[in-house]
Amino acid sequence: PFSKSSDHVGFFTQDLKGSKLIASILCDYWDDQIKTIDKPILGIPEGDYLKQSSPEILSRFYKSIDKLKRKDFVIKSVPAFQNIKNINTQHKLMNAAEFAEVHQSWSRKYQNLYHKTTLNLIQTGRDVSENELNKAKQGRLELREELENLQQIHSIDLWISPAATSTAPLGLKSTGNPAMNLPWTYSGLPTLTLPSGFSSGLPWGIQVSGQYNHDERLYQYAKWFMKNEN
Predict the structure, then answer these.
(1) 3 CB neighbour count, 10 Å cutoff
(2) Is the pTM of this model over 0.85?
(3) Which of 4, 6, 113, 218 could form a disulfide with 210 if both were Cys (CB 3.0 to 4.6 A apart)?
């Protein structure tokens, strides 16, 4: 494991149908009988979280939002992730601490075989106190509760946001900045990233996030979304 508290299975497929098939196998007690009659009400998590994206991505994101509005989607702007810097920090500290725990004996025995970046992460993890780790773990539950309360108060079915801070980076040196995925991973909400066009020949996407343990409903809503987004 990298971080036993935040590790999860992710997968890439060529279409929504293939993704749903994999999810139905991975998720216990999958219920194919769940159906959604109406289009989902979409919520934009406005605030510092969105500002982590580049101006180009935000411009494209809001163009997609305008397109959805023209197709009669109800979209609400809701302040969320007001403490995004703290969320990012807590998530990273938790990951580092649990990573260091996994590699505690190996990193001492085989230190010369580890990449410098990995050793730095292990050292960061070793410096995390038990109290800090417990606080970071508790933060996941608090964030999940906060997001679900906002969904309930504003009658939101899906959160919608950019999938990344920029378009796909050239080359293989980096997979890009995961900041836009981070709070959904931290809170544990099921999330789908969907293609939404190209910029300079490189793809970019949007992501939709549902309610905790309601993956089936997320897929049902995503069908409406894919039908109308393009």
Answers:
(1) 19
(2) yes
(3) 218
SS3 34: coil
How far apart CA 217 and CA 213 sit, in angstroms, is 9
Burial 141-171 (b: 16+ CB within 10 A, else e): eebbeebbebbeeeebbbbbbbbbbbbbeee
| Closest to 147 in 3D by CA, of 159, 136, 164 | 159
Q: How far is CA 126 from CA 19, 75, 98, in A?
A: 37, 44, 9
User: Residue 62: enclosing H or E segment and its boundaries?
Assistant: helix 55-70
pLDDT of residue 198: 81
| 184: CB partners within 8 A, 6+ apart | 159, 191, 207, 209
Instruction: Quote the tokens at residue 31.
Output: 């219920």
Nearest to 221 by CA among 74, 16, 40, 31: 40
**If pLDDT is split at 50, 70 and 90, which confidence band does 228 have?**
low
Q: What is the per-residue pLDDT for 225?
A: 73
Query: Among 208, 203, 199, 204, which Cα is nearest to 226's?
Result: 208
DSSP strand E in the chain: where?
42-46, 75-79, 158-162, 191-199, 202-209
- Cα angle: 52, vertex 58, 60; to 5 degrees: 150
Q: What is the pLDDT of residues 49-83, one digit of tens each?
A: 999 999 999 999 999 999 999 999 999 999 999 99
